[in-house]
Amino acid sequence: VNEFALIGRHFQRAPRSAAVRVGIGDDGAVISPVPGAEWVVSVDMLVEGRHFFAGTDARRLGHKTLAVNLSDLAAMGAAPRFALLAGALPDADDEWLAAFMQGFRALADRFGVELIGGDTTRGPRNLCVTIVGELPAGTALTRGGAQSGDDVYVSGVLGDAALALAMLQGRTSLAPDAASVAQLRLEAPVPRVTLGVALRGVATAALDLSDGLTGDLGHLLTDSGVGAVIDVGVIPCSPALAGKLAGDERALALACLLAGGDDYELCFTAAPALRERIAAIAASLQIPLTRIGGVGPGAGLTVRDEGGTPISLLPAAFDHFA
Ligand code: ADP
Ligand code: MG
């Protein structure tokens, strides 16, 4: 199988959206913007041995490669439109690529994303997606708009992806059911695309949780020039993580909850006057939204334990170069 056979077989497909005038097959794609819209563009790369284990299920990896990018668009409040996929692959493994693209396409179809180009080369396995999303001009959610007095929310439950990683690394163990739930959260996160769109005009600031709550929320606070207080006791987590939090693996559980990466939930701030509106969004999308604290005028993040005492030494957020 040569490069062009692979491209023809796995990537090329007739354009589906009228916005794609030239799709895969030419030197570049030609896409037309909707009048009055802005595009949000982002790129994210997954490297074998760094972001995923060698031997990870190809289908799940295809899903996750797109999911992490959709999560960035969700954090901006953008509706996903187009994706470009650059892949370095160790060999022309047709079966692996078919499974990978099955996972990628299922998620792309679910959220209306069209693959419009990419690049394919031989090399250590490395997958990189460039994503284009769209929103009405001026409505993007950024990290910079949080106001003193706002509430702080997170979607879903936190810490399961890090818990699965700890399990796969032999640092903890889980009952079979909890293990498969956590591993699914790590390997096939569902990006909060519908939530991001629903938060336009509601959230004052937002970001997605890819590197851990305290570090990521810290970025939002810095960019907004405010501080916040959050409570460990109300941060939503799975029963498995809650069990460890209350037991002798508390340190590990706390690190998963506060600094675990790869959750791809959204964290956002909003005025207290919008609490009912936010509860209605949670109900209509069937996505749990939990108020975990509040924004204040000071700087930095204070995390209080279940008894209300500030935790002095927070677990560190993930940093590739630390
Ligand atoms: P060029 O050499 O002109 O850059 P390529 O031979 O790399 O073009 O790619 C041919 C066509 O196939 C291009 O339209 C490109 O966007 C597309 N393509 C290549 N690899 C991928 C991929 N992994 N996913 C999607 N499209 C791809
Ligand atoms: Mg070319």
What key attributes describe this structure?
10 helices; 34% helix; alpha+beta; globular; six-stranded mixed beta sheet; binds adenosine-5'-diphosphate; 25% strand; 322 residues; four-stranded mixed beta sheet; 12 strands; binds magnesium ion
H-E string: HEEEHEHEEEHHHEHEHHEHEE
Q: How would you describe the shape?
A: globular
Biggest sheet details: 6 strands, mixed
- Portion in helices: 25-40%
Which structural class should the secondary elements be placed in? Answer: alpha+beta
Question: Mean of the pLDDT scores?
Answer: 95
Strand order of the largest sheet: 8-10-7-11-9-12
Low-confidence stretches: none
Task: Describe the overall structure.
With 322 residues, the chain is of the alpha+beta class. It has ten helices and twelve strands. It has helices at residues 3-10, 58-76, 94-110, 160-168, 176-187, 193-198, 213-224, 239-245, 250-259, 275-285; strands spanning 20-22, 30-31, 37-47, 79-89, 114-122, 126-136, 151-155, 205-208, 227-231, 266-270, 289-296, 300-304. A six-stranded mixed beta sheet has the order 8-10-7-11-9-12, with helices on both faces. The protein has a four-stranded mixed beta sheet with strand order 3-6-4-5. A two-stranded antiparallel sheet has the order 1-2. The longest helix is centred in the first third of the chain and has 19 residues, at 58-76. It binds adenosine-5'-diphosphate and magnesium ion. Adenosine-5'-diphosphate binds next to strand 4 and strand 5.
